Amino acid sequence: MCQHPLHGFIAGLPKCEHHVHLEGCLTPELIFQLAARNGVTLPKDDPAFTSISTLAERYDRFTSLDDFLHYYFAGMAVLQKESDFADLAWAYFQKAHSDGVHHAEVFFDPQVHQDRGIPYETIVTGFSEGCKRAERELGLSTRLILCFLRHLPVESANELYKTFLASGDYEKGTIHGLGWSSSEVGPPKDMFREIYASARDQGIPLTAHAGEEGDSTYISTAMELGATRIDHGINLIQDPELMARCARENVLMTVCPVSNVKLQCVKSVAEVPIRKFLEAGVKFSINSDDPAYFGAYILDNYCAVQEAHNLSILEWRIVAENSVQESWISNERKAELLERIEAHVKNFL
Fold this sequence. Notes:
Elements: H1 7-12, E1 15-21, H2 28-38, H3 52-58, H4 65-75, H5 82-98, E2 101-108, H6 110-115, H7 120-138, E3 141-149, H8 154-167, E4 177-181, H9 193-201, E5 207-210, H10 216-225, E6 229-232, H11 240-248, E7 252-255, H12 257-262, H13 274-280, E8 284-286, H14 291-294, H15 298-309, H16 313-325, H17 331-348
Parallel strand pairs: 1-2, 2-3, 3-4, 5-6, 6-7, 7-8
């Protein structure tokens, strides 16, 4: 944790997290625990999977997004039953709550699990149970966002989308929006055009990973397809006109500072355009992305930003309030969270 004089304020500041992958919360400890519970054999040809410590050490040496994704997808093999998915979500929510998160919008990646033979219903029910438990026992509000994976064929996403529509999970309030993630550079920028057009016509909220490794045109393409939120988005600064448009249209960037460093998109958190976004009026939230793999949950990311950019209390209030205002929650819940932020700020001012 940071030693900054404002650490107490930052730790207690009510937070919203919009960019965290539940599968990215699989710690080495939980991977080995679930592997033993479910009789899953971890990869024997990779020395990283020899022990908890060797796997944790390997997580410190990711060379790229694709290098990380290799371990990210390998770890998922331990998730077999509803209870596994529920336990994973619960582990994240407990940590998030201790870091001051009051509202969390979390991603999950059904295609990888389905390819392993895990039914869609098992995945959704398990993660949904974790969300309900967090709301019931921790007082969080939660939103579950289904992600399509760009490294897989679009036909796979089409089949998942059909399953999602048939399930009625959006209408039932089980799944609250759709996104895309995984390898950014390489696949067609608009590969989910038809899916997004259909979802947009039905009023389903849309987000998209863009502008992390890819340039600003990945962001503009995602917005063209209907995304009203951009995950990562740090390369927005390459296009001043697009940046002005995002500010004007309240397009939220869900920035993940430590992730950007770990995946070598930037050399340090100081290069993440926090102040440029503030100066341009671009709304953003600060998030953990895949905290078990990057060794940094949301408070660690807040602290890293503070150490690199030295925000004032009033600047943190802007970040916190924007995070609430662009969350996919009711106006009543927004008002409640904004009141908590204001009370916290007044205590420190």
